[in-house]
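A further point concerns the way the authors explain their paired sequence and structure data. Since the whole study asks how a given chain folds, the encoding of that fold should be made plain. A single example would do more here than another paragraph of explanation. An entry of this sort, consisting of the sequence and the corresponding backbone structure tokens, reads as follows:

_____
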Amino acid sequence: MVCEPKTRMMVIGYGFQVIHINKIIEPAAAAGTKIFIVDRDGVDALNRAKTVVNAPGGIKHAIWQSIIGASRRNLIETSTKDMVKRTKVMHFFTSPLI
């Protein structure tokens, strides 16, 4: 399902360190899935990533073009205290994909 056209994937609190999960995320990105990362490190969470054997440059290189947003706040803070981040997250779900 993550490789279907016009798919969005929100990655919450995942440090990209589990190779068998990365093997699902990489082809999804290659298929055009748009990714939003929620992690205390934002997109820098990719710096902790485990590399999938066949991916030149690792998962960071493989999915970078698919990332359309990130938040360093947890979802409770985002939904209750930070209207700017909340708007950013809601935009991820509601904006048309090209």
About this structure: Strands lie at 8-12, 34-38, 67-71. The mean pLDDT is 85. Helices lie at 19-30, 58-63, 75-80, 83-94. The two ends are 18 Å apart (CA to CA).
